[in-house]
Input
Amino acid sequence: MFTHGIWWACIALAALFLSCSTYSQELNGVAHQYLKRHGIPCLFVLKVGSSPHGLGEVATCQDGREWALFWLEDEIAFVHPRTREPYKWDRQIYLSHPEIFSGPNLNDENPILPSGGP
Output
């Protein structure tokens, strides 16, 4: 009887895990469609999470760029990787000045300095 209860508990936990995983995949898909509709250059969304900086939900694309999603306002803002400040997305500005919307550059943040030896 005890084994029977453990078996059902395992099934319930597996179902809960799968439903959470499915939900996050669906949210990623919806966020990706939203980004595409606004002309954001994003191949796929890695994750969608809340921002500790009060930006609401933030989608992270495969290239590391983060985008604040303002669902009700139907707007998107680029989240600057260093300052965490949002920049309103404008397709024309992106086409003219893509460097404004560049993703995180890991080489600048953590430079590896050569050592003098052991």
About this structure: Residues 23-105 form one domain. The helical segments are 2-37, 91-96, 106-109.
